[in-house]
Amino acid sequence: MARVKRSIYRQPLTPSGIRKIEEGTLNWFDPEMFANFNTGALEQYLDEKNRREAFDIPAWDWKKIWIAIAIGTLFALINQYVGLKVGMVVAGSWYIIYILGMAWRWNPPTLNVAATASNGAAMICTGFVFTFPAIFILAYDPSEYVGGSPLITHLPMTRILTISILSTMVSGILGVMYFIVFRRIWLVEDPLPTPGFEATVKMLDLSRVVSSEAGEQAKRSFKMTVSWITATALFTFFRDFPIIKGRSILDHLFGGPHYAAGDIIFTPEPAKYTVASISLIPIQFGLGWFMKARTAFLIFLGTMFTWFFVVPLAVASHIPYIYFNTGEVFDVADMSMFWPLAQRGLLAGTPYEGVPTSPALAAYQLARIMAIGTIFGGGMTALLKMIPVFKTVFADLRKVESSGEGARASYIPRKGWYEWPAEHIKVMLVVTLLIVFMVFWAGGFPFFASLVFAILLISLTFILGAIAVKVMGETGTEPVSATSFLVLIILILTFKLFGMSRSELLIMSLIGTTVFGGAISMSGDTILNFKNGLYCGNRPHDLVRGLTPGIIPGAIVSGLSAAFLSYGLAKGELNLPAPQAHAFVVFAKGLVVGAVDWNIFAAGIVVGVLIELAIGMGTAFGLGMYLPLGLQVPLLVGGLWRSSWEKYVLEPRYGGDERMKTLKLLDTYMMATGLIVGEAIMGTLVALYLVAGLIF
User: Fold this and answer.
1) Which residues contact 685 (CB under 8 A, 6 or more apart)?
2) Is the CB of residue 100 less than 8 Å from the CB of residue 125?
3) For a tag on the chain, would you pick the N or C end, based on fewer CB atoms within 10 A?
4) How many other C-beta atoms are found inside a 10 Å radius of the C-beta of residue 441?
5) If residue 263 lies in a helix (H) or strand (E), which one and from where to where?
6) How far apart are CA 218 and CA 663, in angstroms?
7) In the chain, what is the greatest distance between 2 CA atoms, to the nearest angstrom?
8) pLDDT, tens digit, for every residue of 76-122?
9) Is beta strand 263-265 parallel, antiparallel or unpaired with respect to 259-260?
């Protein structure tokens, strides 16, 4: 008697689900579909149903696709600003597309294809958000100089932008193509749970059954979003735009020891044991709303650990502070000796430009190194915890190859393509290899180094992309930071063999990591769109066709905005902490010239390992450690408010009405998106004004 295949992912089928599948009467969005998610049998049934019937459902509309790509491209710019401001990005373009689709009565397959196209344009920015700014920081930020000079001494802007954008375009498309290999095994045969996908499927269901009343509500939600964007943008203008003698309106009205640049300060400079403040930053409230209380609180714990334990302990213990620009060692508790000089502007242009001017800020610089170690330690531990996953990744891929599924006919006679042709993977692999090699070589990098990088890129994107898809499908979190740190290590150690100058080595390694970040984000982020597509009747071919065009404008906008904003933050004109980029700066400096306090970094690694083992969020805890206290308070407030609102307002009022609960929750998503978008757009406009002043 044959044994039934076991799986750690599959859920048991319901009796009614079994009956409807056997009868062939189960349809998209039936109650039985929602009750049998991730059973495996449902997914195989729907995949065969889609193969037969999806051709008859109108899902492709170029007009809707271009609208979605335009919105996604705008979010590539928004994500760039938000990522540099708070260290994370938000997939807010999805909610805008869902609201538009509901208001304009798009059917679920069309809506999901449009959301997928938007996602391609918005999320290709990942590498430009996290890694690319490190190049500008190492070139222009005096606080990151080593021995009195920058590590990157020549920055050919046009050349590095061209290389980065073109390489990110083709590698992002390759990342999408690689997903074709993973789709069948991890979405159909042994479906990954992909936490949180149920909510988006429910939204697609609402677009199908939307009534005229609900359609009007969707239009009201969109108008509400515009109102939140407008109000938030206006507040950001008052907070940031230097309209009165180089100061903003709020700075002019309230500026002093207890208010500066949007921060309400409780411990004025020169602060000794900590810096307690609250930032007036709508973005963080919106992000906290999306996260809910638990996640926001765990990130805030990292911030509390820095400001109420590490910083005061470092000051009280008189920890030595190494200032690598001059090589001097100071007692962290004595750094306030620089405060009078900074107040009179006497540090600018000297080797001490950028030195922390209070004990608390000096201790915070050390805590940031620890935080970067925590991000690294937590990320690496998360990957090590996934070693069983790694084993099954390659076993699953071998299974696909041996079973012949990879060669399964994708073309349905007299109908068209169901899957995207697997043969195109090989074509795109060769195209990516040639283009990446040629643009790096033509851009002035060594011939063999360019060739080796192109080979490493296509190999690492496949191997680490498979891991990213599996981890994303199991946990709902993509390990971009951890895998990018691994890639940076590999690239720096590899390029050292080619005898490049220190500046050239850093530029090539950081551009390479940027390109990898874009590619792997496409592999990992794609899983949710394709999982939704399985349940709403999409052809995978349409999803790939929708995803790839958005990558091109998204990469262009991401690259240009990253260069512009990174130049401003490195020059000290923009108040953008850029935590992920600074993490790569510290890591690169340590690998290339050893300019990092390895003891503090190692202590951070230990913290990251322990937190990851204890609560499974070591990287998020490390990100919280890195950021100012004031920046994180609105995040916590947003998360707590969301959870309280759901418990005390949403559930009592609409407890049994799932449709109204989803619509009301979607309303709040639009509010949160409006807070994020409004500040990001106005913040970018202010940045354009300030950076233009630097250039012209």
Assistant:
1) none
2) no
3) N
4) 18
5) strand 263-265
6) 8
7) 86
8) 888 888 888 877 776 667 778 877 887 788 888 999 999 999 988 98
9) antiparallel
